[in-house]
Structures are given as structure tokens and as C-alpha cells.
Amino acid sequence: MSTISNHMPTAELQALDVAHHIHPFSTQEDLQKKGARVITSAKGVWLKDSEGEDVLDAMAGLWCVNIGYGREELAEAAFRQMKELPYYNTFFMTTHVPVIALAAKLAEMAPGDLNHVFFASSGSEANDTNIRLVRTYWQEKGKPEKKVIISRWNAYHGSSVASSSLGGMKGMHAQSGYIPDMHHIDQPNWWSEGGESTPEDFGLERAQQLEQAILEIGEDKVAAFIAEPVQGAGGVIIPPSTYWPEIQRICDKYEILLIADEVICGFGRTGNWFGSQTMGIKPDIMTIAKGLSSGYQPIGGSIVSDEVAAVIGATEFNHGYTYSGHPVACAVALENLRILEEEKIVDTLRDDTGPYLQEKFRSLAEHPMVGEAQIIGAMGSLALTPNKATRAPFKAETGTVGYMVRERCFANNLVMRHVGDRMIISPPLVITKAEIDILIERAWKSLDEGMANVKAAGLF
Ligand code: PMP
Predict the structure, then answer these.
(1) What is the mean pLDDT of the chain?
(2) Which residue of 54, 179, 286, 316 has the fewest CB atoms within a 10 Å radius of its CB?
(3) Using one digit for the tens of pLDDT, what is the confidence trace for 130-153?
(4) What per-residue confidence (pLDDT) applies to 458?
(5) Predicted confidence band of residue 376 (pLDDT cuts 50, 70, 90)
(6) What's residue 338's pLDDT?
(7) pLDDT tens digits, 149-173
(8) Ligand 1 centroid from CA 165, angstroms
(9) Count of beta carbons in the 10 Å neighbourhood of residue 136
(10) Phi, psi for residue 260 in degrees, rounded to 5
């Protein structure tokens, strides 16, 4: 076989790709028909594809490249660490400097008494850890029957069997099965499900479903509640202001452990270091991944409170991954955190570029096919609708119109995702005002072109 490289014609790369590579969340038919876009390099917020096109990545990869692409310092940190100690584990009474340094750094950054970290290589693994952590916690407290974890429909907590059961994506449950002792309540998505209620009443009502679920299942059986401070993969659903205070009240009242899944919200995405700070909540456990290394290395983890750590620490926690606290991943994450802090990337987003992005993004709600534009920090979504007043869905399978708009974004060299008929963005936090202008211009153009196609299909 000839050497496969960037210099090969795109069509040949695509043919080999579809012949041998199974893609996540894609259909073979689409890949066969259209060919996957081959990304060859990237810098800042810009991807370069094999045709030489410059594509604005308004999704930061998969919500993870917070510091932007192409930071050589991270490559150098990996190189240095690989030469010194490419691998060692932290099982059976050993440790190493990068894992010590990263755990200590995270303890310093995380709010409250979240001072202890269990490492994994991804958000899915970290949420699997959380399931075992909370069950072990209650066993150690003499309440082994407290096993049920309450989550929300349309939540995303990962792709492993356990974390996808924890998540609320019905399509995933249907394919992979569903582990026991998981329970889902409804999401605080006012646009789609709020009916005639005000957002505030609706937020309260959805939060109170947690209390109802605890009472129905039995307080003595519920171990924890897990949620993303702002739902990401569910469509960037920013909950009404009444939602989180009520959830916190209920968790406190029934002594249910609160797990904040910060995989997307963590490390600046919402304009603070953690989404829990933006939403004013006090979790017992936080799931982290993605922005921890800005995606340069696979790393995730669970940060737990002093109390949870003390209870777990009373026994041997029979859990661990070969790559828990991988030294190269830790070294890269540390360098990423150094850059985020020293270059004041989160502060700049909160005080300067964030407000600019938010104002421009909200102006997309003036487009005839956009019902609402919701944004917090640097994560936002547009609800597409044929009728802004009634918030009606399109007369087509959900996602048909979203997909049509996404196709136009792709053609206009803008990576924007669709979740059903919501269009979502989550750009690198280092995006500049000039790049924000380009993002908004391309989004508007894609909405216009998408709307023309939607009209031609008789859906608008
Ligand atoms: N939790 C949340 C909130 C996520 O958004 C994701 C990934 N999109 C995960 C968990 C799973 O992370 P990973 O893909 O790294 O396993």
C-alpha cells in the first residue's frame, strides 16, 4: 500500500476512510455519498482542510479546544514529559510529579472544598467513576440500598454503557441497553416544552420533578442527582433562573449527592472557571474533561469534596484505569491551565469578547427562521422555527431543518452543529472580535440559504 499522507488526493483519502474507519455518530451512507471532510492542520480558531479551505471552527472541535489550536507550548510539554517519563501508573502505592501537580492545581482552582481528584481519560470514564464513587460512598455510610442516580432526559454524560445510561439520550439507550437504577426527569427546555408557562414557573416546575422522583423512589434509595450546569449536547439549553436554586434546595433537603457534569462547562466555557460558579451551585462531585487539556491530550476526572474523599478513603476503592493520571496528559493539562490563567483567557471572555459575542449572537434572533438565540459565556444556540410567536416545530421530522442549515454552514466554511432544530456554537475561548464578526456573517448567510432550501422543500 502506498504511504497515506496529507499529499494524497482528498477523494482517495475519503475512500480509504469509509472503507476501514467506523465513525462515531455518522451513517455509512452519508460517508459513502459525501465523503468526510479531511482536516489537515489548525491554528487558533481556524481549521485547514485537504482542499486548502480555511474553516472557522465555531465548535472548538467537540467543545474542547478552549485555548485554540496550534499552541506549541503544549506540544513541548508533551515532548519533555515523554522523554522523562512517558508512562507510569498510580496504582498500588506509586505516584509521579505531573499527577501530583495537576491534582493540587485542580484542588486550588475548583470551588469550595472540592479538593480531591480521581483521573480518567475522558468524560465518559469519569462519569463511570462517579457511579462507582457514589455507590461506594453510600455503602461506606452503611446505606448500600442508596443506589439510584437521577438524571435528566436529553442529558449527555458519555458513550460507555454506564455513562450513556446515566445520560438521557433515548436513541443511545435503544442501541446499547440500559443499566439498572437510573431514573430520568424532564429537562428545563422552556422553548420546546414550556407551553404557556413563563420560563420562571417552568424552571421551578421542572426542578420540582426531582423532589417528586425522590419521594416516589424513596429517599433511602436515591444516591445522587447528576446534571450539566448548562446542557450542551442536548442543544445548549440554558435553564431558567429559577431552576438551579430549587435543585440545590432539594439536594440539600434530602442529602442527595449533587454531581455537576462540567465536561463542557468547565475551564471557562460559561465565563467562569466552572459552570457551577455561573449557576451558583455547590456540587459534591464535578466531572471534568475536554477543556482540562483543551483536547490536546485525552484526560478527564472527578473532583470530589473533602467529605466524599474521606468516606471513600476509608476503604480500598476498587476502581482505576491504566491511563488514570497519565503523566503526559497531566503535563499537557498543566500547561493548558497555565496558559488559560496567565493569558487571562477566561477573564477576557467574561469581560470583553464574551459580551461582544453574546450581543452579536443574540442579533441572529432577528433572522426570520430563528425563534430565540440563547447564549452564556461562549456557548449558544438558535431555535429554528416556522413561527416565532407560537414556537411551533417544523412539519418534518425533528432535525430535518437543522441538518439543512448545518449543510449550508459547512459549505460556507463554518463549523456549527445542529441538535434537532437547534443550531449550536461553542468556539475556542480565544476567538477575537474580528473572528466573531466572520462567524456571525457566515451564520446569517447559512441561515438565509438554509431557509431558501427549507422553503423550496415546502417546510416554511
Ligand atoms: N459529559 C458531558 C457533559 C459531555 O458533553 C461529554 C462529551 N460531549 C461527556 C460527558 C463525555 O465525554 P467523552 O466524550 O470525553 O467521553
Answers:
(1) 97
(2) 316
(3) 999 999 999 999 999 999 999 999
(4) 94
(5) very high
(6) 98
(7) 999 999 999 999 999 999 999 999 9
(8) 13
(9) 20
(10) -95, 115
State if residue 168 touches ligand 1 by the CB under 6 angstroms criterion: no
Contact assessment for residue 376 and residue 270, using Cβ atoms and an 8 Å cutoff:
yes
Q: What pLDDT is recorded for position 243?
A: 98
Pocket of ligand 1, candidates 59, 169, 172, 290: which has the most ligand atoms within 8 Å of its Cβ, to mutate?
290
Give residue 115 CA to ligand 1 midpoint distance, Å. 22
Residue 417 has a pLDDT of 97
Region of 391 (left: φ > 0; alpha: ψ -120 to 50; beta: rest) is left
CA distances from residue 164 to 156, 160, 177, 180, 406 in whole angstroms, order as listed:
7, 6, 9, 12, 25
Across residues 430-436, what is the average pLDDT? 98
Residue 120 near ligand 1, beta carbon < 6 Å = no
pLDDT at 178: 86
User: Does the ipTM exceed 0.90?
Assistant: yes
d(C-alpha 258, C-alpha 286), whole Å: 9
The finding on whether 123 has its CB within 6 A of some atom of ligand 1 is: yes
Q: Determine if ligand 1 sits within 6 Å of the CB of residue 298.
A: no
| Probe residue for ligand 1, chosen from 25, 64, 131, 156 as the CB with the greatest number of ligand atoms within 8 Å | 156
Cβ of 230 less than 6 Å from ligand 1: no
Q: Which residues pair with 400 in a beta bridge?
A: none
Q: Are strands 379-384 and 422-425 parallel, antiparallel or unpaired?
A: antiparallel
DSSP letter string over 1-21?
Answer: -PPP-TTS-HHHHHHHHHHH-
Fold of 10-70+344-456: Aspartate Aminotransferase, domain 1 (3.90.1150)
Report, as an integer, the average pLDDT of 254-280: 98
Query: What's the CA-to-centroid distance between 412 and ligand 1, angstroms?
Result: 27
DSSP state of 55: E
CA of 289 to the centre of ligand 1 (A): 7
- Contact assessment for residue 187 and residue 234, using Cβ atoms and an 8 Å cutoff: yes
Which comes out higher in pLDDT, residue 178 or 350? 350
Q: Which cell is 333 given?
A: 493539562
Rounded to whole angstroms, the Cα distance separating 290 from 121 reads 10
pLDDT confidence of residue 7? 87
Topology at the third CATH level for domain 72-342: Aspartate Aminotransferase; domain 2 (3.40.640)
Instruction: Map out the domains of the chain as residue ranges.
Output: 10-70+344-456, 72-342
Q: Is 264 in the pocket of ligand 1 (CB under 6 A)?
A: yes
Alpha carbon of 46 to those of 49, 71, 352, 432, 438: distances in Å?
Answer: 10, 13, 21, 12, 12
pLDDT at 418: 97
Q: Assess whether the C-beta atom of 308 lies below 6 angstroms from ligand 1.
A: no
Lookup result for grid cell 407551553: 195
- Give the separation between CA 204 and CA 199, rounded to whole angstroms: 9
